[in-house]
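Problem 12. The chain below contains 142 residues. Write out its predicted structure in token notation.
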Amino acid sequence: MKGEVIIRQAESGNLPEVKSLLQEMRLPIAGLENHVEHLFILESHSRVLGAVDFEAYPPYVLLRSLVVAPQVQGQGYGRRLLQFILDEVKIQGFLEAYALTTTIPNWLVRLGFEEISRSDVPEGLQASAELQEVPVQPQHWS
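Solution.
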């Protein structure tokens, strides 16, 4: 990808493009509009190339919507987004992060997450629409 690639906080106007990218990659969008204040995008030349979001359930967060456009996958942008959001949740004072994935469980494990059972997910996270809809094992990072 030529040109500057930045990560910045999304604006409400970015939501349709993020949803479209998530749907293209067959990732869930349930409840995304309720957490736009924690949505960050990977952008180049005003074009959304990726996104990551989290739902806050202090002292925990549920990471969601980690996505990179197919044309820029394999260039380290997923790792860059994940590191950015983990740094962000630390700065904001959260203690632990949880993630759900249907596509990248081994990748998350290589980056420090561990697979856990749903019964080990803190009760506060159970309110997440994404957690209720996605029938996969959660991942945990602290």
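Discussion. The two ends are 32 Å apart (CA to CA). Students who got a different answer should revisit the alignment rule from Section 12.3.
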